[in-house]
Design a protein that fits this description.
By secondary structure, this protein is an alpha/beta fold. It has eleven helices and ten strands.
């Protein structure tokens, strides 16, 4: 199978270098790479040109329209049978393309999604973010640890779809607000087979500081509501859990200052949750310090997602 790897880029030339290096190291070589510069001021054209002899690679430029529409532009210009989508801050393990080729044929998939992970050489903060974004302690397990692969909703940082699926769906209909989840739902409703390939993971080399991580989590909460504007019934019980966590913490804080009986129950619940996050993250990363940092990123992730979810839900309710 011939793959077309489509990567949108916006003002991140150094990130794309790490991703391209990982694509050079792929064992399975039957693919092309399309870099779509989405109106960047700081372009990566020079870096892309330096890989012309190492990869089958093309550089495309469009005015700034958002990553979803940049991916569409890339797929419209692609020559492959199957389109593979990565974000520019990903690093792809050497056996990724081979694993994907085998899984698509064996399972007869029309589209796929894959999980993200933290590499051993990532910073403590990057590992803490990865845990907060992928652990069941924060509902992040729905990003790549589902027992039923067919229930997975692919994320744009690591997903793919056949040319036939793209031609029927026309790709993304929203530029940057849960556009990947929306497309996943639409692909399935059209009768195509989209599943999680858990072995096809990428290392997500996020460059967030704590503030940008909170802002991103806040936007994720808003994006989930935005998806429901396209697909009624797309919001499930699990998506309310970060909001319930936020409201529970606020209630616990109020009970503390007012000396209400509920303070003791809240202390036990949040104490056990905090201990669980700390121990799980410490064991997974073999670092007590990473466990401590993860407690802060996990609280921040849930609080921010819950706040964004509630705000966008309120706006949607006002608009009717």
């Amino acid at each position: 199978m011939f793959f077309s790897v489509v990567i949108p880029v916006f003002n991140r030339p150094m990130e794309i270098k790490e991703l391209l290096e990982s694509l050079v190291r792929q064992v399975y070589k039957n693919f092309e790479v399309l870099i779509v510069e989405d109106g960047s001021v700081i372009t990566c054209e020079e870096i892309v040109n330096s890989y012309q002899e190492k990869l089958n690679i093309r550089y495309l430029f469009q005015s700034n329209k958002g990553q979803g529409f940049a991916r569409n532009f890339g797929m419209r210009n692609a020559q492959g049978d199957y389109f593979v989508l990565f974000d520019s801050d990903c690093i792809v393990p050497p056996n990724y393309m081979g694993i994907l080729n085998h899984a698509l044929k064996e399972r007869r998939l029309d589209a796929h999604g894959g999980p993200d992970a933290a590499a051993e050489d990532f910073s403590v903060f990057q590992k803490a973010i990865n845990f907060s974004m992928t652990s069941w302690w924060t509902t992040g397990g729905i990003r790549g640890k589902l027992k039923t692969a067919s229930k997975y909703q692919a994320r744009g940082y690591n997903m793919g779809l056949s040319k036939a699926v793209f031609l029927e769906t026309k790709g993304f209909i929203d530029p940057n607000k849960g556009e990947d989840i929306e497309l996943s739902i639409r692909i399935k409703r059209l009768g195509y087979k989209l599943e999680l390939i858990k072995e096809a993971f990428v290392y997500h080399n996020r460059k967030n500081d704590f503030g940008s991580f909170l802002a991103q989590s806040f936007s994720f909460g808003r994006n989930r509501i935005n998806v429901s504007r396209y697909h009624q019934g797309s919001i499930k019980f699990v998506h309310f859990l970060p909001l319930a966590f936020l409201l529970g913490w606020l209630a616990w804080t109020i009970s503390f200052f007012l000396f209400l009986p509920g303070f003791y129950l809240g202390t036990v619940i949040f104490g056990l949750w905090t201990l669980g996050v700390f121990l799980s993250a410490s064991i997974q990363n073999r670092s007590l310090f990473t466990g401590i940092v993860t407690v802060f990123t996990s609280y921040g992730q849930l609080f921010s997602y819950g706040a964004g979810f509630s705000l966008e839900g309120f706006i949607k309710m006002l608009k009717g």
